[in-house]
Automatic annotation (TrEMBL):
GO biological process: ether lipid biosynthetic process
Lineage: Eukaryota, Sar, Stramenopiles, Ochrophyta, Bacillariophyta
Name by which UniProt lists this protein: Alkylglycerone-phosphate synthase
Family of the protein in this entry: Belongs to the FAD-binding oxidoreductase/transferase type 4 family.
Binding site for substrate: 44
């Protein structure tokens, strides 16, 4: 937008944030977060050497369900952690990363102590799955932009009809067989090969 439009939007956002106890952090924080993506693997290795396992997961949720979805998802993670008598208290946080007219993208961050925990990856995954169940129950989506993949495929029957799943399977099968593995048999696309 124009300079005047951007100035007005910043003022409106600043007033809204201030009204609800928030504040503007500036673009440098976002840039620092982006730059951190290059260090994540090293931080993960360092954290694991100190028995600290962490992951993030995201969802989209309508505005009307956002506060409750966040509250109940955090509560569910704490319950699952306690139920397993795991050491310490898990570190939980979340942030809203994208705003839309219909709702928001919420990132959750879940960290736990894995010192003397047998099968820590399996237990961590179970807790993350419980959190995903809670997100779905509270009106959140399976994913905002990370996609379904193998990690979340188990949830597709609870959010999609059997008919839709069959259509998707047939479409994927066709794509894999006809296009990806047999690329020479693409004459029907009438591609200009020049």
């Amino acid at each position: 937008g124009s300079k005047i439009e951007v100035t007005l939007q910043k003022k409106l956002i600043r007033n809204l944030a201030s009204k609800h106890g928030g504040f503007l952090a500036g673009s440098q924080v976002g840039k620092a977060g982006y730059d951190l993506t290059y260090a994540i693997a090293y931080l993960r290795d360092f954290a694991l050497s100190h028995y600290f396992l962490a992951e993030s997961f995201e969802t989209f949720v309508p505005w009307s369900r956002a506060v409750d979805m966040i509250k109940f998802t955090k509560k569910r993670i704490l319950q699952e952690h306690k139920k397993r008598a795991l050491p310490g208290i898990p570190l939980l946080s979340c942030r809203i990363t994208q705003l839309y007219d219909e709702g928001v993208c919420v990132y959750f961050y879940f960290c736990m102590n894995i010192d003397n925990v047998p099968n820590p990856s399996e237990i961590f995954s179970e807790i993350e799955c419980a959190a995903r169940e809670e997100i779905l129950v509270m009106g959140g989506s399976l994913s905002h932009h990370h996609g379904v993949g193998k990690l979340r495929a188990q949830f597709t029957p609870s959010i999609n009809s059997r008919g839709l799943i069959e259509v998707i399977k047939k479409k994927l099968s066709f794509l894999l067989i006809q296009i990806i593995f047999l690329p020479l048999r693409m004459d029907w696309l009438e591609l200009d090969r020049n």
